């Protein structure tokens, strides 16, 4: 399994970015996918999730209405559109896949992409 994020950048408050995560090594269309983020000195936190078909999404309350998760199964790619960015959104953003075998869940992570929101 390999997950490679890109798209992070330095942006001013109110700006927008689109993050991408290219997946390989597994059948992407069969798995729900997630975005997490981690700011310095804090725990990694859930941002958004999407079902395998893209039919259902879920968001953390802190980003609902500003961020949009989507996927292109033909391109094995997960996206996160970030709008109206605020300094509190500054973090490393990670793509995540959870592989469940029986009662055990294994997490796969990308290397992360840095989003910095500052004027």
General description of the model:
The chain has 119 residues and is mainly beta. Helices cover 0% and strands 54% of the residues. The strands form 2 sheets. Strands 2, 4, 5, 6, 9, 10 and 11 form a 7-stranded mixed β-sheet that branches. The mean pLDDT is 97.
Q: Which terms summarize this structure?
A:
119 residues, 11 strands, 7-stranded mixed beta sheet, 4-stranded antiparallel beta sheet, globular, mainly beta
Helix content: under 10%
Distance between the termini: 37 Å
**What are the low-pLDDT stretches, counting only 5+ consecutive residues below 50?**
none
The proportion of residues in beta strands is over 45%
Structural class: mainly beta
Helix-strand blueprint:
Elements: E1 2-6, E2 10-11, E3 17-24, E4 33-38, E5 45-50, E6 57-59, E7 67-72, E8 77-82, E9 91-101, E10 104-109, E11 113-117
Question: How would you summarize what this structure contains?
Answer:
This protein is mainly beta.
């Amino acid at each position: 399994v390999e997950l490679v994020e890109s798209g992070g950048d330095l942006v001013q408050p109110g700006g927008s970015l689109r993050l991408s995560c290219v997946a390989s090594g597994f059948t992407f269309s069969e798995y729900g996918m997630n975005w997490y983020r981690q700011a310095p000195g804090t725990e990694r936190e859930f941002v958004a999730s999407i079902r395998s078909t893209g039919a259902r999404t879920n968001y953390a309350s802190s980003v609902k209405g500003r961020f949009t998760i989507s996927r292109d199964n033909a391109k094995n790619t997960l996206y996160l559109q970030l709008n109206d960015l605020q300094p509190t959104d500054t973090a490393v953003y990670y793509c995540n896949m959870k592989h469940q075998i029986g009662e055990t869940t294994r997490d796969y992570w990308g290397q992360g992409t840095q989003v910095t929101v500052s004027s």
